[in-house]
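Entry 14. Ran structure prediction on the chain below.
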Amino acid sequence: MTNLKPSAKALVPFVSVENMMKLINHIGIEPMLIGLADYIEADFKRWELFDKTPRVASHSDVGVIELMPTSDGDVYGFKYVNGHPDNTADGLQTVTAFGLLADVATGYPVLLTEMTILTAMRTAATSAVVARLLAPKGAHIMAMIGNGAQSEFQTMAMKAIAGIDEVRLYDIDPAATAKCAANLAGHGITVVSCKTAEDAMLGAQIITTCTADKQYATILTDNMVGAGVHINAIGGDCPGKTELAPAILHRAGIFVEYPEQTRIEGEIQQLDADHPVTEVWQVLTGQAAGRTDDKQITLFDSVGFAIEDFSALRYVRDQIAETKLYQPLDLLADPEDPRDLFGMVKRAQ
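Output, structure tokens:
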């Protein structure tokens, strides 16, 4: 990891949306997803070192605004993120985000970056890390239910990290499916556009659900899910928002990031508070079992957690130094005498 100490002039590297897109294209989408996955897995394996708290959420009738903080003791990071499902009707993003990384020893920020695109990348990388861990052996077909802003990233990550070579697409809006299919063309994966969710799931060993409506929804009914599949449920991510019929949860081995947050926001908000779940970091470190047999249904009840954002911020910090794809941001006051902030203002006259 590169040096995280703040610069002498207290200029903070800022990665804009434009530079984030340049960085992704400079590295390559699949190599960057693989790099993010490596950082996420490394941080999951040192999970116990981190400060952990459910994200701080401010809910409204139309959406949610959240802060997601964590620290490993040396570095602190947080993300600001919103979720407003109706935004697309006004031509706005459902999810927007930015994030910050700071040096714990001084409290000085050392990175500020857009995270709307980066969140989609880290979410996809996390999904693929867990699918590689839990999906049935030889899994190579994924059903992608919900073809919005996350769908292409999810598909590319599953290809690069979990080894799928075919994706079957379904969305209630055919235009979203057409968009996703067009974007994935030429990326070395077979794309099948489907007219129903049931059709999309035919032959799929991995099922990803990623829908946006803030409601208790049943995207997958119990009879749609056969034995042996891995479900990657990423759409249900706040109180009152789910995608799976409760009966599926009772049939599945359930894996989560941080139970204290997932029980509030994930699919398991539909279950009793003591329903058993396994934390992903425990599987990665060998402290808990993953898939136990070929017929088991495994479910990653993913709501996103701050450590994944921390990993993504670390990754970006390490990549930009050589590319120079950032702007030095004059964010922090730096008077010649640190006790004379007033004098700094006065001299600026």
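The CA atoms of residues 34 and 161 lie 6 Å apart. Will compare against last week's run tomorrow.
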